[in-house]
Amino acid sequence: MAARSNFHRMVVDDPAALASAAAERLMARIDANPGRIAICLTGGSSPKQLYRLLSTDRWADRIPWGRVHWFIGDERFVPVDDPLNNMTMARNIFLDALAPADNIHPIPTDTSDPDESALRYERELQAWYGASKLDPDRSLFDLVLMGVGPDGHTASLVPNDAVLQDTDRDVAVTGVYMGRQRMTLTYPVINRARQILWVVTGAEKVKALSQLQKGDTSIPGGGISRDQALILADQAAAGAGDPTSTA
Questions:
Q1: Which of 74, 128, 234, 236 could form a disulfide with 203 if both were Cys (CB 3.0 to 4.6 A apart)?
Q2: Phi and psi based region of residue 118 (left: phi greater than 0; alpha: psi -120 to 50; beta: remaining)
Q3: What number is the average pLDDT over the span 115-141?
Q4: Fold assignment, 8-238
Q5: pLDDT above 60 (res 197)
Q6: Which is nearest to 153 in space by CA: 125, 195, 182, 114?
Q7: Residues forming beta bridges with residue 9, ordered by sequence position
Q8: Residue 147: is it exposed, middle or buried by C-beta count within 10 angstroms (0-12/13-18/19+)?
Q9: Which of 74, 77, 64 is nearest to 36 (CA)?
Q10: Partners of 200 in the beta sheet?
């Protein structure tokens, strides 16, 4: 499939610098909205240092916790106490200690099946948004954090899955991927965010990051909008000796 136009990209030295750059951009989105704020988090290894940074006084003191609501872009169908649960990871690192409980919006996994989980989360998004169907011309999220896997998957938009073609649901269910079914936001919801921020670390992401930067639509990450997106990558993910910034 043909590639589309490039993302803006900023390459920094290491994961610590990446976390600081991501925190600055997250705060910029928060500061831009004087009302109720919706931040969509991501799982995986890349954002952990960012979440640890947000728990420190320097950053926590800047966040208007009462106005910020925290969502998650995807979840494995595992119990809330499972180490693979994405929102539990974020809660353990910073949310439970700092955010009001009513402002944390996990994908429920205490259900009979992942379809019920997806439907319940879709209804929660719609209730928070104030409409029974999300408006294609209105943003739900102020910021969506994204990661990318070595195979180009992002959120749980995974290679060769029917979920990539789903434009009717706001939250959809994947087939079994890496041993688990998953619930994920779909392209239309993600692509209506005011800002999409990719956080990419690690040498195993070099190929996927290159494909993503080129807008390669043969990988799931290639379906994410370029207009409001920025890639933040460390040197390991970008490839040695690449200080390129196109942001």
A1: 236
A2: alpha
A3: 85
A4: Rossmann fold (3.40.50)
A5: yes
A6: 182
A7: 231
A8: buried
A9: 64
A10: 233
CB 105 within 8 A of CB 153: no
Question: Is 194 in a helix, a strand, or coil?
Answer: coil
Residue 132, pLDDT score: 64
Tokens coding 30: 């928060």
Cα-based torsion angle of the residue sequence 81, 86, 90, 95 in order, rounded to the nearest 10 degrees: -70
Confidence of residue 240 (pLDDT cuts 50, 70, 90): low
* Rounded distance between C-alpha atoms, residue 227 and residue 8, angstroms: 9
Instruction: Quote the pLDDT of residue 44.
Output: 85
Phi/psi at 138 (nearest 5 deg)? -130, 135
Burial of residue 66, with CB atoms counted within 10 A of its CB: 0-12 exposed, 13-18 middle, 19 or more buried: exposed
Rounded to whole angstroms, the Cα distance separating 178 from 106 reads 21
Closest CA relative to residue 58, chosen from 29, 27, 102, 31:
27
Euclidean distance between CA atoms 118 and 8, whole angstroms: 32
Distance CA 48, CA 212 (A): 21
Structure tokens at 47: 């954002």
Please return the burial class of 95, using the count of CB atoms within 10 Å of its CB with bins 0-12, 13-18 and 19+: buried
Global pTM value: 0.92
Q: Could you tell me the two tokens for 102?
A: 């009513």
Q: What is the mean pLDDT of the chain?
A: 91
